[in-house]
Write a structure and sequence with these properties.
The chain is an alpha+beta fold and 379 residues long. Helix content is 63%, strand content 14%. Helix 4 runs antiparallel to helix 5 and helix 5 packs antiparallel against helix 8. The N and C termini lie far apart (83 Å).
Length: 379
């Protein structure tokens, strides 16, 4: 009897603890969840103190400031606060975003999340738009509309589909078709040369997708090489295919250069037919191919430099590593960039003969007519 009574008491005690922990205000998990109060736009009024201190456990110094700032939005708008900042050095007048947290024991913690770069982004975006329109005129405006449409497609169609777990390769290939349609037809007009370029690029994207799939599978790339991929995996509870996302990234990343090379080859064939209607298909093909080779050489270099520039801090980090070159390039984060550059380069090389061949046959019946395509490129 005593054992049964003790067992019942233990069960009742456990139930009481569970009920107690589940009550609002008493749940540890609820308190943790409610720590973060928000991110507010703020402005530095004064830098009260600034000093250089060593980061504990290292020989690296960092700047620690004591700031006086005014909160510019939220429940505490207009309030003047004082806090320490060891993240990003700020100066008087800087506008930044402030994280506000309250710990379990009621202590308020303020920290700098980032500076407000939106005015700078808007300023340079306006300069970019004006420069494109001033140089490209009506075509430049069409290019901007196409670019805007591309971002809308990526943000409101591609990203939601990927987050819902749709196959990354098939999804990115489908979305690539929409992006190419916007990029080619809105920029260069609805004409026969644009149709040739669109068809050639779609074929090249498909071939590039096959190459990218082979590279990712044979290279056994997991997609976990970057911090953002790891955070994404935790945020989505491991439901996303990160290796598939690598493929999607490669496909989307090469669209610009494939579009460039395809529209150029289509325009070259059209110009050759227009300048000399007596050229045979074979002569036209070889002349256009020569232009394509020159263009491809420049674009391959562009791709390599673009990826190298993006990974420059990483290159510097590994340059001071004690590991050998073969071990460094074997790491996934490096292997990915190498394969991305190689696959993209193969894709653009394949685009040249494919698009040129289609253009030679399709545009032949328009010999001597004024080319419809506009030769400028705005990407």
């Amino acid at each position: 009897m005593q054992k049964m009574l003790l067992k019942k008491i233990q069960i009742l005690a456990i139930l009481a603890i569970i009920i107690f922990l589940s009550l609002p205000g008493n749940s540890f998990s609820q308190e943790i969840h409610r720590d973060f109060q928000g991110t507010w736009k703020s402005k530095v009024e004064r830098v009260l103190q600034e000093e250089r201190v060593l980061i504990p456990g290292t020989n690296t110094e960092t700047t620690v400031q004591t700031l006086e700032a005014t909160i510019m939005e939220g429940d505490r708008k207009g309030e003047l606060i004082t806090f320490q900042n060891d993240y990003l050095p700020l100066k008087t007048g800087d506008v930044f975003f402030l994280n506000f947290l309250i710990t379990i024991d009621g202590q308020e913690i303020f920290s700098v999340r980032d500076v407000d770069r939106r005015p700078v982004l808007l300023f340079f975006t306006l300069i970019f738009g004006l420069a494109v329109i001033a140089f490209g005129g009506w075509q430049g405006l069409r290019a901007l509309i196409g670019l805007f449409g591309t971002f809308l497609v990526i943000i409101f169609i591609l990203l939601p589909l990927l987050l819902k777990g749709y196959p990354p390769v098939l999804t990115s290939t489908f979305i690539s078709t929409i992006i190419l349609f916007l990029a080619i037809y809105f920029t260069h007009g609805f004409n026969r040369e644009s149709t040739v370029a669109f068809t050639g690029t779609i074929i090249a994207v498909s071939l590039t997708g096959i190459l990218a799939y082979s590279a990712v599978r044979l290279g056994r790339l997991t997609g976990f090489a970057s911090d953002e991929a790891i955070y994404l995996n935790f945020s989505t509870y491991g439901q996303l295919d990160l290796s598939g996302l690598l493929l999607a990234g490669i496909i989307i990343g090469v669209l610009g250069v494939l579009d460039d090379i395809s529209i150029t080859q289509s325009a070259v064939v059209s110009e050759l037919y227009g300048a000399n209607p007596n050229l045979s298909r074979k002569e036209t093909y070889h002349k256009a191919l020569r232009v394509g080779r020159e263009h491809a050489g420049a674009l391959v270099n562009t791709l390599a430099l673009a990826y190298t520039g993006a990974a420059l801090p990483l290159l510097l980090l590994f340059s001071i590593s004690e590991s050998g070159f073969s071990m460094i390039v074997n790491q996934e984060i490096f292997a990915l960039e190498i394969l991305r550059t190689i696959v993209g380069s193969i894709g653009l090389i394949l685009t040249i003969p494919v698009t040129t061949l289609i253009a030679v046959f399709v545009l032949e019946k328009y010999r001597g007519r004024k080319p419809e395509v506009t030769h400028g490129h705005v990407h």
